[in-house]
């Protein structure tokens, strides 16, 4: 009789706040026969915090393919194994893709144990459109390559989300300005789930200024979100008119705000009404 295959559990861990670990993640990490981790020293601290004394084996970009073979062998022999990364959901800008693909090819069940992920955590609180978004991971190291990558994202992609670093964020913002213009709306989500969590919202020029005003603001972990290209209606209505509309919208119902703005600036009421509606969708 052949022994039933064990499973590979892809387990999400906290991105800052340790209380974000799920009960199911704790149970899984306790029960599996061993845990494949990106950095065993780093993950050892998390396991220690959770009171889990399970065996860790290193799986990183440089040994993933070889390690995958031995993990699959163990699973096929009936062992359950967990995969974790340094933070958040494995495979999301983290190792694990080859392992999961090879497990699937070998018929080893792959079971996700969901939890924190920086891009979703950032997006759900940014106030940018969530119906469509494109995650582009870490951008390339060279400015010209970054600009090509950004320019390749179609307008229809919705909110663009990328991971960035303290060292590079100002250079990235220069590329964002070069490709999308200084007026494109951005949200920079910093230190998510940690003590100094902060969402900086504004145009590309404003966020750049905010960061340069205080070098400390460049520090920490960050997710950059780029609002979709403004609609035609947005583009045709001047900044000044849009500002008035925004101020009035904060105080008045949409219809009244649009009517008053139209009166103040001698604009078409319906265009302003549609624009305000698009901001709310
Ligand atoms: N697998 C992780 C996930 O599920 O989000 C991402 C790993 S990737 C190597 C690390 C990048 O994720 C950081 O450079 C940063 O862009 C983003 N990130 C991770 N934790 C974050 C946090 N607490 N706040 C903001 N960004 C974070």
UniProtKB/TrEMBL annotation:
In terms of domain of life, where is this protein from?
Answer: Bacteria
The GO annotation for biological process reads:
methylation
One of the entry's Gene Ontology molecular-function terms is: methyltransferase activity
Recorded hits in InterPro entries, A to Z, give:
4pyrrol_Mease, 4pyrrol_Methylase_sf, 4pyrrole_Mease_sub1, 4pyrrole_Mease_sub2, rRNA_ssu_MeTfrase_I, RsmI_HTH, SAM_MeTrfase_RsmI_CS
Q: Which residues form the RsmI HTH domain?
A: 236-279
**UniProt record similarity statement:** Belongs to the methyltransferase superfamily. RsmI family.
- Protein name stated in the entry: Ribosomal RNA small subunit methyltransferase I
The lineage is: Bacteria, Pseudomonadati, Pseudomonadota, Gammaproteobacteria, Alteromonadales
């Amino acid at each position: 009789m052949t022994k039933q295959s064990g499973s590979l559990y892809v387990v999400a861990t906290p991105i800052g706040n340790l209380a974000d670990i799920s009960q199911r993640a704790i149970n899984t990490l306790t029960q599996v026969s061993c845990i494949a981790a990106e950095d065993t020293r780093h993950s050892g601290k998390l396991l220690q915090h959770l009171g889990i004394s399970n065996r860790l084996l290193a799986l990183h970009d440089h040994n993933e393919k070889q390690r995958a073979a031995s993990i699959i062998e163990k699973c096929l022999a009936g062992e359950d194994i967990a995969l974790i990364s340094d933070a958040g959901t494995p495979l999301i800008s983290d190792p694990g893709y080859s392992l999961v693909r090879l497990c699937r090819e070998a018929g080893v069940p792959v079971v996700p144990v969901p939890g924190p992920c920086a891009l979703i955590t950032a997006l759900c609180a940014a106030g940018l459109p969530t119906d469509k978004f494109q995650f582009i991971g870490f951008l390339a190291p060279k400015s010209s390559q970054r600009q090509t990558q950004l320019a390749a994202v179609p307008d229809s992609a919705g909110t663009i989300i990328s991971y960035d670093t303290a060292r590079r964020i100002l250079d990235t913002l220069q590329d964002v300005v070069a490709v999308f213009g200084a007026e494109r709306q951005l949200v920079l989500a910093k230190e998510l789930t940690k003590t100094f969590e902060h969402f900086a919202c504004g145009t590309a020029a404003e966020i750049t200024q905010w960061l340069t005003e205080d070098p400390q603001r460049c520090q920490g972990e960050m997710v950059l979100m780029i609002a979709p290209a403004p609609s035609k209606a947005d583009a045709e209505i001047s900044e000044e008119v849009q500002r008035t509309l925004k101020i009035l919208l904060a105080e008045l119902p949409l219809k009244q705000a649009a009517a008053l703005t139209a009166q103040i600036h001698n604009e078409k009421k319906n265009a302003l009404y549609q624009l305000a509606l698009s901001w709310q969708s």
